[in-house]
Specification:
There is one protein chain. The protein has 153 residues and is mostly helical. It has two domains: 39 residues; 92 residues, no CATH class. Helix content is 63%, strand content 0%. The protein is built from seven helices and no strands. The chain is elongated. The N and C termini lie far apart (70 Å).
């Protein structure tokens, strides 16, 4: 209705009308794009799972260690902070480390400092959660709290 009229003659080689040929080309284009997307997706997933390098038969000892950590003294806190020196380790086990990091801060505030009025996790004024592990990693990367605070004064 909105396109120019088409002479819908049959092609003597294919036996299809011009309209049928255009429809077949469009279908083929869609199939090729879908195949390309599926190939990309499978290659991406295969590469990801090769990097993970975990066997379902073997327990991940790092996860088990992180899950079993308890904070009863400063040495327990130091043990967790020592684990944060390796960037790849933090990236791989970030989910587990974030929880333990907040547990450590909660223990320190409540037991050592006697502060029970502050919520953990911390929230900003606009009700957004502050990721304490990310904040710690940024300050550490920038040289520590003295370097970061003296640059901002």
């Amino acid at each position: 209705m909105f396109c120019t009229p088409l002479l819908n003659k049959k092609n003597c080689l294919t036996g299809l009308t011009r309209e049928d040929e255009m429809g077949a080309k469009e279908k083929q284009c869609i199939i090729e794009k879908q195949f390309g997307h599926e190939t990309f997706k499978s290659d991406y997933l295969n590469e990801y799972f090769e990097k993970v390098n975990l066997s379902s038969n073997e327990p991940d000892w790092n996860v088990m260690i992180l899950q079993s950590m308890k904070f009863n003294e400063f040495q327990d806190c130091k043990a967790l902070l020592d684990m944060l020196d390796e960037g790849e380790y933090v990236a791989k086990y970030k989910y587990y480390i974030e929880g333990k990091f907040e547990d450590m801060i909660d223990w320190f505030l409540r037991v050592q400092m006697g502060i029970s009025s502050r919520p953990i996790p911390v929230f900003m004024g606009n009700n957004k959660r502050v990721n304490l592990l990310d904040l710690y990693m940024i300050v550490t990367r920038e040289g520590g709290h003295r370097t970061v605070t003296s640059n901002n004064l």
